[in-house]
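Reopening this ticket.

The earlier resolution said the output was attached, but the attachment link was broken on my side. Pasting everything inline this time so it's all in one place.
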Amino acid sequence: MSKREALEISEAGIIEPVPVPAQPDGRPLIGVLMVMASVLLFAGNDIVTKVLVTQYPVPLVAAMRYIMQFVLMLALLPRMGTRLLKTERTGLVLLRSACLVVSTLGMGLAFQRMPVPESVSIVFLAPMLVVLVAGPVLGEKVAAASVLAAVVGFAGVLLIVRPGGGLDLFGVIFVLIAVTTSVVYYLLSRVLARTESTLTMLFYTALVGAVCFGATLPWSWSGPAPDLPTIVMFASQGVATGLGHYLFTSAHREATASLLAPVGYMQLLWVGLLSWLIFGHVPDALTIAGMALVTTAGVSIAMISARRR
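Inline output:
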């Protein structure tokens, strides 16, 4: 990764490169607050998704999210023109977007069967798995400390999904599908960051998601007639993720990646707090210990990666 790139947490719960100034000379505290706000938006979107998928089919909920996100991306066309559409490796860009579509479907199906904190904690395994495969797949040098942290994170996930933990088996399977596709999405993000702009990749992500899930609407259009709060929740999905990405990217113009990367893992804290406030869900002690291991491992990997870069 070049010196003009930082780390961004995507809506899939993974970390990907974004272009930022080489030497941020702004207000570090403002940058930290921006990251905290962005991951709060991501966590809020997870909670909203959980509420919606208990009443509506997952493809319908996902379609509303991606269509709204695509509409927001279209607003950039008058300013950017064909630059927003231009790609160097279109096939890989579309494959990356398709991976996120599958990940979104997996997480939605998991949210129907599992609490949000446990689901999100498991999907945060994705960047740790990337540490283990980045060497043989991308030819990158991986620090031994990062490998050790990844092993710790995997141990944390095992505590969360342990037998007798009360998690739905199919829910766990769906999360693991999301993790697998997120790893591929992350690796493709690393490869494409050398030739494609962040906004272009976000545009095609929204386009592919809107097309794929929109095509299911004739079969997934079911559920109770939405009232005004439900309509607001549907609309908020695309707005929350779009604004969250904007804040996260802007934060790196105020502070360095080594300072901001660990703050991104506050998403797990926000998810846990919101889940308790809205659903009254409190994980048991072993699950909390597993989530703590995942968070510690993730923060460690983020700090090591940011400092090396």
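Reporter confirms the inline version is readable. Residues 28-53 form the longest helix (26 residues). The mean pLDDT is 81.
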